[in-house]
Amino acid sequence: MDDDDVHQDLLTLERRGWEALCDGTAAAFYGEVMTDDGVMVLASGAVMDRDAVVVALEASPPWHHFDLADVRVVPAGGDAAALVYTGRAWRDEDGEPFTGAMTSLYVRDGIRWRLALYTQTPVS
């Protein structure tokens, strides 16, 4: 798999995650996509394992829409790569967005990519 394929695969998967955050299916999506020992580090400072992420997403309101910019892939070995980007997401159509520098580290589990680590840092 070449770098362009990895970039496209990871960007497609990341967008699917954001779409799930918008349509209310994020708990199921991340429960399936995250590795068993996967972790999310959120802008609030919360560090959550996969089970905690699923519980939190089941109780979270959906996002209205999102935008990903300045997307790049950082190789991290033969079966791992990080997707780094600036994300903006709106809870309400006319509200202020949350903007963050985001990193999703994916590892290949057989033939599919799985999310091992996600981080977000607020950007003003």
TrEMBL record:
Gene3D superfamilies, sorted: 3.10.450.50
InterPro entries: DUF4440, NTF2-like_dom_sf
DUF4440 domain mapped to chain residues: 11-115
Superkingdom, natural source: Bacteria
Designated name of the protein: DUF4440 domain-containing protein
Protein species of origin: Geodermatophilus amargosae
